[in-house]
């Protein structure tokens, strides 16, 4: 049997992970000298005072290698195979660390087989491929079959989000001070996405309201050819505005009330208060990856 491992930035709700047997290696949030295990943290409580973090943005670190090895080794000893799907290697070293750890386990247990995918993204844009692979594994798919399921999903997903302001992006050095000042003066709100493994600007709008409308327009364009398979509304900060947007704007458009899920704080603290959508289409999105394809390692 194939077991699926991802990391906590995938933001997959715990009940779904439990149902599908998905393991999630947790990244660590470092705030004011305190280490918080992301998957064990009450994210709504964490985000409650997010505005106070702008001048001292928390940092993050990879899952402890010892814990990752424990999980991989315990699976390997049962004779099962492992497929790991992780946050973009341009955002974290988690992918490389997993590959290194899994190879060490394979040195001790030569019959162990594993594969790893650099998702080139994060949050539920990475979560949907992990779920697709886990569902394939449940039906008895081989390691290659699970890889194919995850890779097809990766090419069919998108994550777009709109920050409330440019403050956190400026404080974190993602944009210049002058650009942030001008952007805030004219109420400029970018629609952000993850492109080829890094955060990038998808579109620029004059207000967050227009940015939210733009995201739904993009959703419509992406799903027009094949239809919508899955969608969550992501939020950073307060859940209430995201719930309202989901109920009033998103649900009428897609025909059902989507799940509203907090985005990973590892990502969220660098963006600041924001809302977005992470969705999966029934078929690949044309030109999803521009300059490179997700790296897949099979051993």
From TrEMBL:
Alphabetical keyword list: Lipid-binding
PANTHER family: DEGV DOMAIN-CONTAINING PROTEIN DR_1986-RELATED (PTHR33434), FATTY ACID-BINDING PROTEIN TM_1468 (PTHR33434:SF2)
Name of the protein this chain belongs to: DegV family protein
Organism: Slackia isoflavoniconvertens
Molecular function terms from GO: lipid binding
Record-linked Pfam families: DegV
């Amino acid at each position: 049997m194939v077991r699926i491992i991802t990391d906590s930035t995938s933001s997959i709700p715990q009940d779904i992970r439990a149902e599908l047997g998905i393991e999630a290696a947790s990244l660590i949030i470092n705030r004011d000298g305190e280490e918080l295990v992301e998957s064990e943290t009450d994210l709504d409580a964490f985000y409650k005072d997010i505005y106070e973090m702008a001048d001292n943005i928390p940092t993050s670190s990879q899952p402890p290698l010892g814990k990752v090895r424990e999980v991989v080794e315990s699976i390997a000893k049962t004779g099962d195979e492992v497929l790991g799907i992780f946050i973009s290697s341009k955002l974290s070293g988690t992918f490389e660390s997993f590959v290194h750890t899994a190879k060490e386990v394979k040195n001790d247990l030569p019959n162990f087989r594993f594969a790893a995918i650099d998702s080139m993204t994060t949050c539920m844009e990475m979560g949907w491929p992990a779920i697709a692979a886990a569902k394939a594994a449940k039906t008895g798919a081989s390691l290659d079959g699970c890889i194919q399921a995850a890779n097809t999903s990766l090419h069919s997903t998108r994550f777009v989000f709109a920050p409330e302001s440019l403050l956190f992006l400026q404080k974190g050095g993602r944009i210049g001070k002058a650009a942030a000042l001008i952007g805030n003066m004219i109420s400029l709100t970018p629609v952000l996405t993850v492109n080829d493994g890094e955060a990038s600007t998808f579109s620029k709008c004059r207000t967050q309201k227009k940015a939210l409308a733009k995201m739904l327009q993009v959703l419509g364009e992406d799903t027009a050819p094949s239809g919508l398979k899955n969608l969550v509304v992501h939020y950073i900060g307060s859940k209430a505005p995201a719930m309202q947007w989901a109920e009033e704007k998103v649900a009428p458009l897609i025909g059902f009330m989507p799940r509203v899920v907090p985005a990973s704080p590892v990502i969220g603290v660098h963006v600041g208060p924001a809302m977005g959508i992470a969705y999966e289409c029934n078929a690949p999105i044309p030109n999803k990856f521009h300059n490179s394809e997700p790296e897949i390692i099979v051993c």
